[in-house]
Amino acid sequence: MSEHHHPVSAPCAGDLFGGSRLSAARRAIAEAVRSLGGAFTAEELHAAVSATHAGIGVATVYRAVAAMSAAGALAPVGSRDGSTLYALCAGGDHHHHLVCTGCGTVVGIECPVDGSLLSSAKSAGYTVTAHEVTLYGLCAACAACAAERD
Amino acid sequence: MSEHHHPVSAPCAGDLFGGSRLSAARRAIAEAVRSLGGAFTAEELHAAVSATHAGIGVATVYRAVAAMSAAGALAPVGSRDGSTLYALCAGGDHHHHLVCTGCGTVVGIECPVDGSLLSSAKSAGYTVTAHEVTLYGLCAACAACAAERD
DNA sequence: TCCTTAGTGAGAATGATTCTCAGATGCACG
DNA sequence: CGTGCATCTGAGAATCATTCTCACTAAGGA
Ligand SMILES: [Mn+2]
Ligand SMILES: [Mn+2]
Ligand SMILES: [Zn+2]
Ligand SMILES: [Zn+2]
Hints:
2 copies of one chain form a homodimer. Chain A is α+β, with helices and mostly antiparallel strands and 150 residues long.
């Protein structure tokens, strides 16, 4: 179904899963991830994939989320009501995410952790090995909606 | 027991709890928080307080952690094995935390989210309302320990 | 001192996530 | 193309951090 839609360098549905095996369930889950567009919980992803492909178990969705995260295709972007939120991650260069708390859309942002912060950490005796940065806010549409609601 | 140890502006044991009531259990919990020094889970805090003050329930510790967090005296600094890590927060000006993954010590760091990042978010149509930043690394002692272990 | 109400402890409940297990199936290799 | 086997799957049980319930106690303002 995709023979001539994409150049060879653009994987059509699959390669959110790195090296691991590509089953029918995982193909459906990858499709659902793409259709959701923004941030989602594992349960929401399960609901989305179930709408078009019945019979996929929730454990399979959790395992797929873990596999996609390990492959770097998914990134955790906070939590909602005790459930972890995930979003499709562009990959490539190092970056972080800005999540609309209204609709869940996500955009990549450049990393604000710079040499000056790292050197001030170093002067406190620390070697920084990792960091987490996530921004939250409202996209234009959600901000407009919130404004007219007064 | 603290009549003349501190000037009036330095609360002796209590005021991690903002405006709320100061019970014996909460006094003991505040003391345990101080004795732990670094990052801790609710269970670890419960164990620490239980060592010196038997009979305090785990639910009370969870409630105390929530109260201290609401008062701004405690900040979440990541998680370990599925449990949230908390640390005493200096309060005052806006800052974030750098946690030693070896021993759990925490230091405050200046906020790296600057106007340029916010304006690039704005040019993407987003209004930023909140952000989370946490750094992880090794303190001098833990780095030395890791180095000699080769 | 009294009263109101927030805080407490024990245990049950909740709920997200992980695990177990027997069966199915990608896919590398010949 | 087969075959073999490691990986994946679905159902349900299990785990376990955190929250809730409830009867009771005790801050602390009046
Ligand atoms: Mn990304
Ligand atoms: Mn702090
Ligand atoms: Zn970064
Ligand atoms: Zn900040």
